[in-house]
Amino acid sequence: MRKFLIVGTTVFSLFCGVCFSVFCSAKNTDLNKFKNISETIVDNYDGSTDPKNSFFALISRMRYVKRWSVFKNSEEEDLENHSFEVAVIAHALATIKNEKFGGKVDENKACVKGLFHDFLEVITGDAPTPVKYFDLEMKKMYTKLEEKAAKEAIERIEDEDIRAKYSEIVSPNNASEDISDEDKEIARIVKAADNISALIKCLREKRAGNNDFDKVYERLSDKIKNDKNEEVKYFVDNYLKIDFE
User: Fold this and answer.
1) The whole model's pTM is what?
2) C-alpha distances in angstroms, 14 versus 2, 6, 27, 82?
3) DSSP secondary-structure letter at 52?
4) Any idea which fold 67-240 has?
5) Where along the chain do its domains lie?
6) Does pLDDT of 174 surpass 60?
7) 219 beta partners
8) Are 223 and 192 in contact (CB under 8 A)?
9) Continuous segment of H or E residues that includes residue 39
10) Is the pLDDT of residue 171 over 60?
11) Which residues contact 233 (CB under 8 A, 6 or more apart)?
């Protein structure tokens, strides 16, 4: 009986071993197949096989553009993180304006413009604000650079109908003076959201004991404190709960 149990146990162990080997082999085959498929998808998506349709690949590269590169950061922030935050805040500001102060702004449009507001930095890089707005000539040069970057980005969409739609979204707000009053209002809201997002970044760094952002915090605090738009004050008072006094 004992010999039978030993033989039975040995056979069962061998059977399990064979099954496990077959399973692992199948698993490895599946993993390799998945790896090959995923690599093909990435190759297509990053534009290496079809650069004509690599617009959305550019968007995916927003995560590689680091912000605040000339500052010591306790927590790094990339363009993708920042853009999401600005989109959320822009939507909130537009909603507050409409619901509390009788505005008629398209909240969804404000959100989308916020999401794409710095998208062109994937091409131009993140230039510090003091450089971009050093003087009128520098501002004009940077505007031309953004216009060229927008054109290059849009040309990566082959379909004309889709290209036209994204052209409206991606074009810099300052690229044309002939824009509607609503678009001017949305541009103002997105800019306010951008400042609030930067202020939040400064607060995070200050709370982490990093003094590198103190001057930026002071500058942004003055700018936001002096913003006459009621939705900005409402957002800061109710959701950030910052007392600038």
Assistant:
1) 0.76
2) 18, 12, 19, 56
3) G
4) Hypothetical protein af1432 (1.10.3210)
5) 2-45, 67-240
6) no
7) none
8) no
9) helix 2-45
10) yes
11) 227
